[in-house]
Design brief:
The complex is a heterodimer of chains A (about 160) and B (about 400). With about 160 residues, chain A is α/β, with parallel strands linked by helices. Chain A contains 6 helices and 6 strands. Chain A has one domain: Glutaredoxin (3-Layer(aba) Sandwich). The radius of gyration of chain A is 16 Å and the shape is globular. The N and C termini of chain A lie far apart (about 55 Å). Chain B is mainly beta. Chain B folds into 2 domains: about 200 residues, Neuraminidase (6 Propeller), CATH 2.120.10.10; about 150 residues, Neuraminidase, CATH 2.120.10.10. Chain B contains 3 helices and 27 strands. The chains are: A alpha/beta (about 160), B mainly beta (about 400). At the A-B interface, helix 1, helix 3, helix 4 and helix 5 of A face helix 2 of B.
């Protein structure tokens, strides 16, 4: 029992710790509409990742590299972890050089609905990357995308540093 | 304990801790050079994940038609039973007296098998580092009134991944466990070598689960975090079915008869090349006439969705895979169960509002199938669907956050 109490305390302390600098938005039903509506007519990359997925670390490194080359790239990152892990998510993004990207975290246990709103053809595999062109036609990738393919797509819409 | 008590319990835990573990327990990889969060951060993340309530609830019938349930509450595994198909449940009995971090997210779930009055359970215990675990086993010799102190089945005790175990027991009282194991990856990393994926290991007990023989390796280079399926053939020999890494990176499916001399056989040729983790394993059922029935998920550009195939000759030849389920509705997590010539398949879809379990059945050993039909639905979080049989009837076994546990007949 004692250990459980300690665990509960540890969890509480995570919840009441001051928020990291990067705002982490709760991703719930309707969030994807909010994301796309704010980018009408504009291209962007939506990257789904998780703290517990090593391939996602490679993905974050790849996206960070792209952001250095194309500083005007609009990058939206959604962690499929939980809001309780917010500090670790922000820390990982900072370490990956992605502290400036818009960051969200899944905040609804009904993950099937969240996935469906993003893409009915996404089955939860990670990482998952979506390239939205200006008309919001979407290219989707499961697993770490091919850097050359990403670069080709980026050249069409973003200036190169 | 009644269904409503379980529902209340779930509601209470959800209220205290409103977010369930998302099903993405990933995997580490050799030589990953990307900067990691400080170890303490990662460990705290892991602890936070482990502390979340799990909907993973596994059921099995014994030979007398009694339904047995294994589920996780806090840091304990509990077993209860029901004599009225799950309407009323016995008081749950705690399996592990010492608290442990029992994995019940994604493809992790406790296992339960009841043979000749003995209740066998297994689970994966999460260790202090993220994505690590030990395979644990316990049994009850007094009809589920008490359980033996759990023992660790993997004989490699590094703090690495030994996870996604599966359990079967034959009528001779031999106990079989198979799981995904990263000891070979760990050894390769120490030697500065590369090793793709994980390995499949298994253990056999010839004394009813009192002790296990040394671990044996079934195969190198499995995919890392998809559940392993295990079934017994007509000789009571275990057969496993798992997502393997073929060639450079084709994450297709393989089967292996664990007779000590067979070689792995490739079952699927969908050729999904993905540098990622599907979290999406298949299922296997072997009928009394020795026909093996397989279901799996793949997401290759050309061949994607759910597939069914059978083999009447232990993997020499397979039927042409049947693609089923609505690919536009997240059709996933299929399960299969055979009862003689009858074969039942269940899977999960999402229709835009509800998570729906759909099913289809065959009366001729998988040659022809009924149209698919909806078996159950929920408007909240839910477990993967399971199929169980009481010897004559097949049932869908499904746990949901809103409705609690349900057992639903599959019909004839």
């Amino acid at each position: 029992m004692m250990r459980q109490h300690l665990l509960a305390l540890a969890l509480l302390s995570v919840l009441i710790l001051p928020a990291a600098a990067q705002e982490l938005k709760p991703f719930v039903g309707g969030s994807i509409k909010e994301i796309t509506a704010a980018r009408q007519g504009k291209p962007f990359i939506l990257g789904m990742w998780s703290l517990t997925c090593a391939h996602c670390r490679e993905e974050l490194a790849l996206l960070s590299g792209l952001l250095k080359k194309h500083p005007d790239l609009d990058l939206v990152l959604v962690a499929t972890d939980t809001p309780e892990e917010g500090d670790a998510i922000s820390a990982r993004l900072q370490q990956s050089g992605l502290g400036g990207a818009q960051a969200w975290v899944f905040a609804d246990p009904f993950v099937e609905r969240l996935r469906f709103e993003i893409d009915p053809r996404w089955y939860g595999e990670l990482p998952r990357t979506y390239l939205y062109d200006p008309s919001h036609k979407v290219l989707a990738f499961s697993g770490k995308p091919d850097p050359r393919q990403l670069e080709q797509w980026l050249k069409k819409y973003f200036t190169r540093h | 304990m009644s269904n409503s008590t379980i529902a209340l319990f779930l509601a209470a835990t959800l209220a205290v801790c409103p977010v369930l573990a998302v099903d993405h327990a990933g995997h580490e990889k050799s030589g990953a050079a990307a900067p990691a969060a400080a170890p303490t951060d990662r460990e705290n993340v892991w602890k936070a994940k482990l502390a979340k309530p799990s909907l993973a609830l596994t059921t099995a019938f014994d030979g007398k038609g009694r339904l047995w349930l294994a589920s996780i509450r806090g840091r304990h595994l509990y077993v209860s039973h029901s004599d009225d198909k799950g309407t009323t449940l016995s008081a749950p009995v705690m399996v592990n007296a010492e608290p442990e971090d029992i994995l019940g997210d994604g493809e992790n779930r406790p296992k339960i098998v009841v043979r000749k009055g003995v209740v066998y359970v297994s689970y994966t215990k999460g260790l202090e580092k993220p994505m690590t675990g030990d395979i644990r086993f316990s049994r009850s010799l007094d009809g589920g009134r008490s359980f033996s102190a759990p023992l660790t089945v993997n004989d490699n005790r590094e703090i690495i991944s030994h996870r996604f175990e599966t359990l079967e027991v034959n009528d001779r009282g031999q106990v079989f466990l198979a799981w995904l194991d990263k000891r070979d990856l760990s050894a390769a990393i120490r030697k500065g070598e590369k090793y793709s994926g994980a390995a499949v290991y298994y253990a056999v007990s010839d004394d009813g689960g009192a002790s296990f023989q040394p671990n044996l390796k079934a195969a190198d280079h499995s995919c890392e975090c998809c559940r392993v399926a295990l079934a017994l053939d007509s000789d009571a020999t275990p057969v496993i079915f798992w997502r393997h890494i073929f060639g450079k990176n084709e994450r297709d499916h393989a089967m292996l008869r664990l007779d000590g001399k067979s070689s792995p056989i490739r079952v699927s040729y969908d050729r999904w090349e993905v540098d990622g983790c599907p979290h999406h394993g298949g299922a296997l059922s072997i009928a009394s006439d020795d026909v093996s029935h397989f279901v799996w998920f793949n997401n290759a550009p050309e061949r994607h969705g759910l597939f069914y195939a059978h083999s009447a000759d232990r993997g020499n030849r397979f039927s042409a895979p049947l693609n089923f389920g609505n690919f536009e509705a997240q059709a996933g997590h299929p399960h299969v169960l055979s009862l003689g010539k009858a074969v039942h398949v269940a899977w999960k879809e999402f229709d835009g509002q509800n998570s729906v379990i759909r099913g289809m059945s065959s009366a001729d050993g998988g040659k022809s199938w009924s149209p698919s039909r909806q078996l159950a639905a929920t408007t909240g979080a839910s477990d993967h669907p399971l199929l169980v049989a009481d010897g004559t009837q097949a049932y869908l076994s499904w746990n949901t956050a809103q409705e609690g546990f349900r057992l639903i007949g599959m019909g004839p």
